[in-house]
Design goal:
The chain is mainly alpha-helical. The protein contains ten helices and no strands.
């Protein structure tokens, strides 16, 4: 009987890989709930029912665990967006719709991860922040816009600026939507594309401010 009990105990013990994945999942939830500064190794270890040294053994501390969590979230979101923009034969409006819906779908399915991304990163975390993520996305959108501007004889130099505007709108709207969850992500995506697309198709080649706007 003693041997059976010991065998059962050994069979349920986590491997190093399994323990690491458990700590990543627990850390992800704690960081989402409390942010980096208010989270502690003690709480993460307690929720995972392990000792603090186990967390340090796998990640070197809170910063290391946070870096892994953020890196995974950034990779997941970028992969989703890249897939949505991969069909170069698709109409630009369809690409915009797919990208907007992909962004909102990520938020819908990975709320904890999104909340981590939009929080301020610790000073020691040099990369993987939400702003750097948006920069990567904007560069991808910029390529699409540049091709379309060139096709219609518009200055391609404006592609960078318009890409920043579009990505900023989607990102800010996403932060609002994660708190409200209404209307549906499909409706939100359609409204965002409606605003941006009809603004783009009616672009002036050299827009200027009206005289009264300048005071």
């Amino acid at each position: 009987m003693a041997e059976k009990g010991a065998s059962r105990g050994r069979s349920t013990r986590m491997t190093g890989r399994e323990r690491r994945e458990q700590l990543v999942a627990v850390g992800r939830q704690v960081f989402a709930e409390k942010g980096f500064d208010m989270s502690s190794v003690e709480e993460i270890a307690a929720r995972a029912t392990v000792s603090k040294p186990i967390v340090y053994e796998h990640f070197g501390g809170k910063e290391g665990l946070y870096a892994v969590v953020v890196d995974r979230e950034v990779s997941t979101l970028l992969a989703d967006l890249e897939r949505s923009l991969s069909d170069q034969r698709a109409h630009p409006r369809l690409l915009m719709e797919r990208a907007a819906l992909a962004f909102l779908s990520y938020i819908d399915e990975n709320e904890a991860g999104f909340r981590i991304l939009v929080r301020d990163s610790p000073v020691s975390q040099a990369g993987g922040t939400f702003s750097s993520l948006l920069t990567d996305v904007a560069q991808r959108v910029e390529d699409i816009l540049a091709a379309q501007l060139k096709m219609h004889s518009y200055p391609t130099r404006d592609a960078t600026l318009y890409a920043q505007m579009l990505v900023g709108m989607v990102a800010y709207t996403g932060q609002w939507w994660v708190e409200t969850r209404t209307p549906t992500k499909e409706v939100v995506a359609a409204r965002m594309v409606n605003l941006s697309w009809y603004g783009l198709v009616a672009l002036q080649k050299e827009p200027t401010l009206r005289q009264d706007a300048r005071g």
